[in-house]
Design a protein that fits this description.
Strand content: 35-45%
Structural class: mainly beta
Helix content: 10-25%
Number of helices: 4
Radius of gyration: 38 Å
Largest sheet: 10 strands, antiparallel
Number of strands: 32
Length: 433
C-alpha cells in the first residue's frame, strides 16, 4: 500500500508540475499576446483613408485555445474630411467581410444605407454637412477557412467622419457662335441652395426654369438679328460667366406673291386688327412660364411636310420692293386637316383674331411658345395642358389668308426661331436635356 501511495503521490506531483508548466506557458502566451496588434480594414472616403472610431477585437492565443480581447467602445473624435466640392463621393471598403454604411445629413435624415458592399457611391442631395458611419465585422470563421488553417482574430471596427459638401454652381452655354434663327441654352448646374441665377442679354427675353440638377434658360436669335457680337452675363452666387455671343448671317429664301386688294385692305390695313393684335399678343410675348413642360424632341404640328413658305424668307407682295419677313413655316395642308401640339405645354391663348383668324398659343416653358394661325376651328381652350401630339384645332383659312394652310411659329419672347431645328433635333434647346 505504501508503494501505491508513493506512486500516486508522484503522479499528482507530476500532474501538478505539468499543469504548472502548461499554465505558465498559457499565462506567458496570453500576457505576451498583443490584442491591439490588429490591422483594421481599410476604408476610403473619396481620396481619404478613414481612421477607426471604435473597435472590439479578439486575438487568438496559442492557436485559438483562448482569445484575448481589446476594445474601445467610447466614441473617439469624429474625423473631419473638410470640404468636398462634388455632388457624390465614392466609399471603398477593402474587405469582403460584412459591412454597414450609413450616410446622414445635418438633420439626421438617412441619405444612404448600404449593407455588405465593397464599394458604394453616396449622391448628396444638397450642399451641407454630412456624417459617414461605417461598421465592418471581421468574422471568427470564414467560408474560405480550411480545417488546418490557424485561428485568426475577429471583431468589429467602427469608422465615423463628417464632410462639408460645397458644390459651386457651374455655368454652361450651348454655343457662343450661332446663325440667325437659333436657340441658345444657358445651364446653371449644381446645388444652388436657393440662389437664383441672373442673366443679362439683349438677344431675347429669358426665364430660368428648374431642371434636374439645376436651372436652364433659353435665348432666341431672331431671323433678322443683325450679325455681330452680343454680350452675355450670367451669375449665380460666386459663379460668374461673361461671354460674347457671335451671331452670323444666314441666307434665307425669297418669295414673290400676289394678294387681292380686298383681302389686304380688309385685314392688313385695318387699324382695329393691328390694335387687337398688339393688345392680345404683345403681352404673351412678354410672359414666360418658369415650368418646363416639354420632353424629348418636338414633332411637326401636322401631317403635311410640304411647305408654302419657309422660316425667315423674304416675301415680296404685289410688286413691293420692300419685303415682309416670314416668322414661321406655312404648311401646305387641306382644310380640316388635324393640327396638334408639337410638345407638351400650356395653352395661353385660344381664340379668334382678325389678323390670324382662329389662333392658338402654347407655352412650352421658359418663354418658348408655339403659335398656330388661320385654323378653321379650335379643339382646346386657354389654361388647358396639352400633350405632345394632342389635337389643338383643324386647318383652315381664317384671318389674313389666301387659302387653307397652317402657319406655325416658334418664339422665345418676341423672337421667332427656326421650327425646323426643333423638329430635327439640332436646336440648342436640347442642350438642357
Amino acid at each position: 500500500m505504501r508503494v501505491v501511495g508513493k506512486i500516486m503521490l508522484w503522479v499528482v506531483l507530476v500532474l501538478l508540475l505539468i499543469g504548472g508548466i502548461v499554465g505558465g506557458v498559457v499565462a506567458w502566451s496570453y500576457h505576451n499576446t498583443d490584442a491591439e496588434a490588429f490591422t483594421a480594414p481599410a476604408v476610403m472616403a473619396g481620396d481619404t483613408a478613414l481612421g477607426i472610431n471604435g473597435y472590439q477585437w479578439n486575438e487568438p492565443v496559442m492557436g485559438g485555445l483562448l482569445y484575448k480581447d481589446a476594445q474601445e467602445n467610447a466614441t473617439l473624435q469624429m474625423q473631419d474630411l473638410g470640404t468636398w466640392d462634388a455632388d457624390s463621393m465614392n466609399i471603398q471598403i477593402a474587405t469582403g467581410d460584412p459591412s454597414h454604411l450609413v450616410v446622414k445629413d445635418e438633420a439626421g435624415a438617412v441619405v444612404l444605407d448600404a449593407n455588405n458592399q465593397r464599394e458604394a457611391t453616396v449622391r448628396f442631395p444638397a450642399n451641407g454637412q454630412y456624417t459617414l458611419e461605417v461598421r465592418v465585422t471581421v468574422p471568427e470563421t470564414r467560408a474560405s477557412d480550411a480545417p488546418s488553417d490557424p485561428a485568426h482574430g475577429y471583431g468589429v471596427f467602427r469608422y465615423a467622419a463628417r464632410v462639408n459638401v460645397a458644390v459651386p454652381p457651374e455655368i454652361k452655354i450651348s454655343e457662343t457662335k450661332v446663325e440667325q434663327g437659333a436657340v441658345i441654352t444657358v445651364l446653371v448646374k449644381g446645388f444652388l441652395d436657393g440662389l437664383e441665377p441672373q442673366i443679362e442679354t439683349d438677344l431675347s427675353l429669358t426665364q430660368f426654369c428648374d431642371i434636374p440638377g439645376g436651372k436652364a434658360a433659353f435665348i432666341g436669335v431672331h431671323y433678322n438679328r443683325e450679325p455681330g457680337e452680343y454680350p452675355l452675363h450670367v451669375s449665380c452666387g460666386s459663379a460668374v460667366v461673361d461671354e460674347t455671343i457671335q451671331v452670323v448671317h444666314r441666307d434665307f429664301p425669297k418669295q414673290y406673291m400676289t394678294i387681292s386688294s380686298s383681302v389686304a385692305n380688309a385685314t392688313m390695313n385695318s387699324a382695329a386688327a393691328n390694335e387687337e393684335w398688339r393688345n392680345i399678343i404683345y403681352p404673351i410675348y412678354e410672359a414666360a412660364d418658369p415650368t418646363i413642360y416639354w420632353e424629348g424632341t418636338f414633332v411637326r404640328p401636322c401631317e403635311a411636310t410640304a411647305k408654302n413658305s419657309e422660316y425667315g424668307l423674304f416675301r415680296y407682295t404685289n410688286g413691293a420692293t420692300t419685303p415682309v419677313r416670314h416668322a414661321g413655316i406655312d404648311y401646305d395642308c387641306d382644310r380640316g386637316d388635324e393640327v396638334w401640339s408639337p410638345a407638351r405645354g400650356k395653352v395661353v391663348y385660344a381664340g379668334f383674331l382678325q389678323m390670324t383668324g382662329n389662333t392658338v398659343v402654347v407655352e412650352h416653358g421658359g418663354g418658348l411658345k408655339s403659335y398656330f394661325f388661320h385654323m378653321d376651328s379650335l379643339s382646346c381652350e386657354q389654361g388647358q395642358i396639352v400633350e405632345q401630339g394632342q389635337l389643338v384645332g383643324l386647318v383652315g383659312s381664317t384671318g389674313y389668308s389666301t387659302g387653307p394652310h397652317l402657319h406655325y411659329e416658334a418664339r422665345i419672347g418676341n423672337q421667332s426661331v427656326d421650327p425646323e431645328q426643333l423638329f430635327n433635333g439640332t436646336s440648342g434647346l436640347y442642350f438642357a436635356r
